[in-house]
């Protein structure tokens, strides 16, 4: 945690704000136990934003971030800087417009990264034409998708892969529990930074495996009963 705070302070010192600090962009050297931040693709400098806001009081910094885990989806957010002099005078630095009238509620991670201290977030919306509305429904699931019975060979292969992954995760989790008794407290605090959380992924695999098999069994029995009734 100390190295993480020191790295963030080093990035913020030249007036650069990192807005997407996540576990998968943190690299740790297992020999030296040195922690490094590997990604600065969504960083924005404060001074250029100050110049833009000085030219136009309604200027905002817009961040567009593609979500890799969701097909065709992006996150759009808008930010404005907070003037330290305004904070010293006790005035409200955040601006709202009559047609919006509210601000985004920040998460604890956003507060740690400087939200409401160096900048604040603004609610954003935009009009979509007919083609854009059609694209939003491209990968949208319907409630009837859960009633589709999967092929037995595909379902069986998925179960085998999931069980094998659960076995590997169980081995990793058992090893992590054993290491907790051996590592000193200062190394234990950063031992799992940037690594896959075996316990969390194991619980997720168990939940997905049980739900998929229950749904598949229920749909299969219903289909069998309906076939006999007809």
From TrEMBL:
Q: Which UniProt keywords apply?
A: Hydrolase, Metal-binding, Metalloprotease, Protease, Proteasome, Zinc
In the record, what terms sit under GO molecular function?
A: ATP binding; metal ion binding; metallopeptidase activity; protein kinase activity
- GO cellular component terms given for this protein: proteasome complex
| Pfam families per record | RPN11_C
Q: Which Gene3D superfamilies match?
A: Cytidine Deaminase, domain 2
The answer to whether keyword Ribonucleoprotein applies is no
**InterPro entries found in the cross-reference section:** JAMM_MPN+_peptidase_M67A, Kinase-like_dom_sf, Prot_kinase_dom, RPN11_C
The portions of this protein that span the membrane are none
Q: Which residue range or ranges hold the Protein kinase domain? A: 1-230
Q: Which SUPFAM superfamilies match?
A: Protein kinase-like (PK-like)
Q: Which GO terms describe its biological process?
A: proteolysis
What is this protein called in UniProt? 26S proteasome non-ATPase regulatory subunit 14
Organism name: Zea mays
């Amino acid at each position: 945690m100390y190295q993480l705070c020191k790295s963030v302070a080093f990035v913020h010192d030249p007036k650069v704000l990192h807005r997407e600090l996540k576990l998968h962009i943190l690299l740790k050297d297992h020999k030296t136990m040195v922690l490094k931040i590997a990604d600065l693709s969504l960083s924005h400098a404060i001074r250029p934003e100050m110049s833009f806001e000085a030219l136009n009081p309604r200027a905002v910094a817009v961040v567009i971030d593609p979500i890799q885990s969701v097909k065709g989806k992006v996150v759009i957010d808008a930010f404005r800087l907070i003037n330290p002099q305004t904070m010293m005078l006790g005035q409200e630095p955040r601006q709202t417009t009559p047609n919006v009238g509210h601000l985004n509620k920040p998460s604890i991670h956003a507060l740690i990264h400087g939200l409401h201290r160096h900048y604040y977030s603004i609610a954003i919306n935009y009009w979509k034409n007919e083609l854009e509305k059609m694209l939003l429904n491209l990968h949208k699931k319907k409630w009837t998708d859960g009633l589709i019975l999967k092929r037995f060979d595909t379902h069986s292969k998925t179960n085998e892969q999931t069980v094998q992954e659960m076995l590997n995760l169980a081995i990793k989790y058992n090893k992590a529990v054993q290491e907790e008794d051996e590592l000193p407290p200062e190394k234990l605090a950063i031992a799992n930074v940037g690594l896959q959380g075996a316990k969390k992924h194991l619980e997720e695999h168990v939940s997905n495996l049980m739900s998929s098999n229950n749904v598949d069994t229920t749909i299969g029995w219903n289909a069998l009963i309906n076939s006999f009734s007809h």
